[in-house]
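Q: What residues go here?
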């Protein structure tokens, strides 16, 4: 009975935190939700222009914009979740003064909002594509949700680990941002894994996001089936990194409370 009451309380706390995040992020800004649409739109536009200039067709499907969309959505889910976790405590110090609010509650609220936002963004872009005359048939929606869940777990783990490192080495935030750039270009946002030779791919395949984005496209396109990504590797890395990150979050929880005072 106590467990049920505690779970109900935490559920209400997280729901309230989500509403607070929605208000602060979208309701109190002039651009609001349009900024969430602009970011993937900017990525799609830039790479559509590049592909047009070099006269290169979409690696999969009839639309290069749709191809980029299926890469940029899981990537933004990853990077936005990492950043949300890293700034969760510092941006909500006052809330940690309430005993009902745990640092993990703040993180979960932010992660849920990132997922909901990018899910809506994906729906908006797909609706636009359909109105433009493109035929869209999703092959395996459940697999797409599975990949999204794994991306969030991976990102939360990385975020927790980064938060702990930054707490002792503040300059690491700049180092991580610099390291994110090559990860961006090697995660398959604008290519599929068969773009590379086997020698290069044997090295790049250690990037879990490359496997997850390839898996996401495999689930989205009916005409695309990849045998190059490794499901077991992606799942193992995502769960392992999340487990390590969660253990670190537990160890750092007391310190997070002290920061909130």
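A:
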């Amino acid at each position: 009975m106590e467990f049920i009451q505690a779970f109900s309380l935490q559920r209400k706390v997280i729901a309230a935190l989500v509403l607070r995040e929605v208000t602060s992020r979208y309701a109190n800004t002039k651009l609001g939700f349009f900024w969430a649409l602009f970011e993937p739109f900017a990525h799609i536009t830039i790479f559509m222009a590049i592909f047009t200039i070099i006269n290169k067709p979409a690696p999969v499907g009839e639309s290069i914009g749709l191809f980029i969309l299926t890469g940029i959505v899981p990537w933004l889910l990853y990077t936005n979740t990492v950043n949300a976790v890293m700034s969760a405590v510092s941006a909500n110090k006052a809330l940690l003064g309430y005993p009902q609010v745990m640092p993990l509650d703040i993180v979960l609220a932010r992660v849920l909002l990132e997922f909901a936002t990018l899910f809506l963004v994906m729906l908006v872009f797909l609706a636009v594509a359909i109105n433009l005359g493109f035929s869209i048939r999703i092959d395996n929606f459940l697999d797409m949700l599975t990949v999204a869940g794994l991306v969030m777990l991976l990102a939360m783990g990385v975020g927790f680990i980064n938060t702990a490192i930054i707490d002792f080495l503040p300059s690491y935030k700049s180092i991580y941002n610099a390291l994110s750039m090559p990860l961006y270009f090697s995660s398959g946002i604008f290519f599929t894994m068969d773009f590379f030779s086997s020698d290069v791919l044997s090295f790049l395949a250690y990037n879990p996001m490359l496997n997850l984005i390839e898996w996401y496209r495999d689930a989205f396109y009916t005409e695309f089936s990849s045998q190059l990504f490794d499901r077991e590797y992606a799942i193992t890395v995502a769960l392992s990194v999340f487990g390590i990150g969660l253990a670190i979050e537990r160890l750092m929880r007391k310190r997070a409370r002290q920061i909130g005072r």
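A: Context that may help when evaluating the design: Residues 167 and 252 are 10 Å apart (CA to CA). The first helix runs from residue 2 to 27.
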